[in-house]
Amino acid sequence: MARRLKVANPARCIGCYSCMMACARTWYDTISLKNSRIDIQTRGGIETPYTQIVCHACIDPPCMRACPLGALTKRKGGGVNLNKEICDGCGNCIEACLMGAIHLDAEKKAVICKHCGVCPKFCPHDVLEMIEVEDSGEVKITDTGPAPETSPVSSTASHKDLYGGKELGEEK
Amino acid sequence: MTTEQYAIEGLKNILYIDLTNQSYYVEERRDLYEKYLGGVGVAINLMLEEYKEGTGPFDPEMPVILSTGPLSGVYPTCTKAVALFRSPHNGELGESYAGGHLAMSMRYSGYETVVIKGVSQYPVYVAIHDDKVTFRDASSIWHLSSAIDVGKILREIEPGAGRRSIIRIGPAGEKGITYADVNVDTYRHFGRLGLGAVFGAKKLKAVLISGNRELKSPEHNAYRKTVSMLYDTIVKTGLTEKYHNLGTSENILVLNELKGLPTRNLQAAYFEGAETISGELFAEKYLLRRVSCAGCPIGCIHVAMLKRAFSKAHEYEALNISYDFELIYALGSNLGVADPEAVLELIDACEKAGVDIISMGVVLAWATEMQQRGKISTNETMGLELSWGNKAAYLRAIDLVVKAPNEFYSALGKGVEYASQKYGGEDFAIRLGGLEIPGYHTGLGNVLGLSVGARHSHLDSAGYSADQKAFNQPISDEQIVDYIIDEEERRNILNCMVSCLFARNVYTYENVILALKAIGIDRTEEELKELGKDIFRKKYELKRKFGFKFEDLKIPKRFFETPSTTGKIDEERVERAIELYRKKRGV
Ligand code: SF4
Ligand code: SF4
Ligand code: SF4
Ligand code: SF4
């Protein structure tokens, strides 16, 4: 079974940066917002809603096609795997991704979401979720019943309802 | 403590900015950070170094010190920066805290502490981008009618979106209203004691700071574990639920039921209109979204949407306004305003002007009572009739206080202590230590906390919590004094870190020690407590230098007349408690 990150409820974002801190701390051993693979942006200060910029796991990734060195290969479940050894920092992939989800780190290596599942564990507001997908990256259709109410009984309503509910595990 | 033990990066620099000749330099002060950790600990020492006997709040040499601490930008809900200055409002120690993006931006810029001195010849704003500091002529944004708009403009001009903080003043700061605030990233403020007026006197319209540096913990795995533990404690236990859910405005109904909600200039402590200005009502009818300070998963900033018609042809404007308990007390119950939309409009007017809303509310409440008692007339108010619940009159009054068209309004712009000395009505000018009171009338603990507190704020020691304890089961006055002393020290320590006080029950001594340890700083509980005491002594040293004397402390009669949560407060009992506090504290 393959999984990928999904920005499920963008409008619920409170701009806490917990996801960015978690990604940077997990993959770059750093305390900062730097090199987080997800980027929380403000378009008009905190007066306007936040946007979450992150790889959305293309089924046929243009970034991969754009890479002249073959540093990017298809990931099971959509998106790409990066071979850091090969990447020379040309930045072609950055151009190819309309999401703006790629940047280069200080060593001039591409920084792209691995769909590892850490950041959703640090999102207090159910903005980020891991979803199950086909190995190809196609979204699996599992729910066919009526859409759930977004009421206080919904599991995605507020972290109050998560107390004692689904466990937010230790980051790996 | 050796430098080797101070393994976390940063925590060494002080950025000195001189507005007079538009210059700056950086000094390394590891000694200060190592001994005092950061935040108020570092700032209070710098203030003692900088302060020259006899310098007034508006004098060029008088510094503004902004400081963050070792946990800022590192752990969840450690989101505050402290500002120290000499208050133009009461002449005493000016100490104020603000969140938003400021602490994270400062920490990641590599300047954990910034000292601003001098006076510019013309309006300027200062932009700090990592290690570059620039001064720009701000004359074109001076005189803007709204502190909110200043942010909108600078956001377009300056880089660093999402990694920066913009702190700025509104017209009240420019005009020297002694309780002008500094707006931080639109929804947060250095609210109390008039930092905005100090900015104005320095001709400093705004400071923008952005930073994108990295910090490294010497023990990354320990750090990761500690973050997870603290995150879970904040998000998955009930410890911060109050702030996450209804927010501080939950207290409106709670305090009202306890008969501790100052109403109509504290003529009563119960407001019959509380239901319609309750946190519950605001949440149900107006809450649009909640947002967070950078690095905090709680999201306590409650933003309301007010839809307002401006023509009969169904034309509307939508205002986004953040609300909190203190604001609803100050512009709601204490002005007899029971209409929630009126409260929001009044908040909005104050936000644009850039004033401390608690002080403004109390000033207007006092003026209303003065007029009702015939102690002032429409001669002073230029024809305006103030009356409880009268939104239109209060909106105009806010405007007039800031514009100061005559002597009376100009007196109102100097606070209720000044105005009541001039026009009378001191017995019902509800302030302590020259600062207008927050929204509690709970009993001895509250009055004592506000009287002895270093900045006369409920945030010094939360004396109302002592009253709450006393309400539930009788405790002695000495226990109340002890509670306040303990709480003052604990808060001094948290204010070195600098955590948000809404997470004070998460950052217990145990957890603070753990959090510090995971970034390579070793401290024992005893050492931390000693630090808390040390800071207390230094605050009082400064207060003495600024001219504070217990003998001058005036407690208005109103406090003793209106019954509180814990019953009528006896004047002599308060005096005895203050004596006891002084004896225990040696001040
Ligand atoms: S980085 Fe961009 S282009 Fe590449 S897979 Fe992700 S979303 Fe698609
Ligand atoms: S930056 Fe690296 S991954 Fe991106 S296209 Fe160039 S070589 Fe390929
Ligand atoms: S899924 Fe993993 S790699 Fe992708 S943004 Fe979240 S933490 Fe970073
Ligand atoms: S953790 Fe969730 S709520 Fe916080 S910034 Fe990230 S997406 Fe937004």
Fold blueprint:
The complex is a heterodimer of chains A (172) and B (587).
Chain A lengths: L1 E6 L10 H10 L11 E4 L7 E4 L8 H5 L5 E3 L5 E3 L9 H5 L6 E2 L5 E2 L16 E6 L39
Antiparallel strand pairs in A: 1-8, 2-3, 4-5, 6-7
Chain B lengths: L12 E6 L4 E6 L1 H7 L2 H12 L13 E4 L13 E6 L6 E6 L3 H8 L3 E5 L6 E6 L2 E6 L9 H11 L6 E5 L2 H5 L6 E3 L3 E3 L4 H7 L2 E7 L9 H17 L4 H4 L6 H7 L21 H7 L1 E5 L9 E11 L3 E9 L1 H7 L8 H14 L3 H16 L5 H4 L9 H13 L3 H6 L3 H8 L7 E2 L2 E2 L7 H9 L5 H4 L1 H10 L4 H21 L11 H9 L7 H21 L12 H4 L9 H15 L2
Parallel strand pairs in B: 1-6, 7-12
Antiparallel strand pairs in B: 1-2, 3-4, 3-6, 4-5, 7-8, 9-10, 9-12, 10-11, 13-14, 14-15, 16-17
The structure holds iron/sulfur cluster (4 copies).
One iron/sulfur cluster binds next to helix 3 of chain A.
Describe this structure in words.
The complex is a heterodimer of chains A (about 170) and B (about 575). Chain A is of the alpha+beta class and about 170 residues long. Chain A has 3 helices and 8 strands; from the N terminus they run E-H-E-E-H-E-E-H-E-E-E. In chain A, a hairpin with a 5-residue loop joins strand 6 (about 105) and strand 7 (about 110). Among the domains of chain B are: about 5-210, Aldehyde ferredoxin oxidoreductase, N-terminal domain (Aldehyde Ferredoxin Oxidoreductase,  A, domain 1); about 240-435, Aldehyde Ferredoxin Oxidoreductase Protein, subunit A, domain 2 (Orthogonal Bundle). Chain B is globular. The chains are: A alpha+beta (about 170), B alpha+beta (about 575). The interface between A and B is large, with 38 and 53 residues.
